[in-house]
Specification:
4 helices; five-stranded antiparallel beta sheet; 25% helix; single chain; alpha+beta
């Protein structure tokens, strides 16, 4: 699997006065996509945190190509762009259904840290997770 698709329907509260999805909603959608992506690999984000592996956000970026509107059905396509020992970059493509028109794309960069917020090399502390994520590189 190189990517995972999360399906959402735009809610009224996610739109602005012009009826267009407000830009601030894309980052929560990225988070939802990332959480679903990890779950699809059999790795619950919550369980990873309980096990002492956290992934704080270091950087985020989004380019808005076309607007989305109330009740639009969207796909948040999530994939791994890059993985290194202490960092991972997830990519996202937001597609409007049914035509799968690209309306936005972006990425988030995360560190792998322990509960003390110290960087850890995921390949050394959880080789299985590292291998799963590496197999998903786009």
């Amino acid at each position: 699997m190189n990517s995972y698709d999360t399906h959402i329907k735009v809610r009224y509260k996610e739109t602005d006065q012009m009826g267009i999805v407000h830009h601030s909603n894309y980052y929560p959608w990225f988070e939802e996509g990332r959480t679903d992506f990890l779950a699809s690999l059999g790795r619950s984000y919550g369980q990873m945190e309980k096990d002492g592996l956290l992934m704080p956000l270091l950087e985020s970026h989004c380019v808005y190509k076309k607007p989305a509107y109330y009740e639009d059905r969207l796909i948040i396509r999530t994939y791994v762009k890059e993985i290194k020992g202490v960092r991972i970059t997830f990519g996202y493509r937001v597609l409007k259904q049914p035509e799968q028109v690209l309306i936005a794309e972006g990425y988030t960069v995360h560190a792998f840290v322990n509960k003390n917020m110290k960087p850890v090399n995921v390949k050394k502390i959880d080789k299985n997770l590292y291998d799963l994520l590496s197999e998903c590189l786009a």
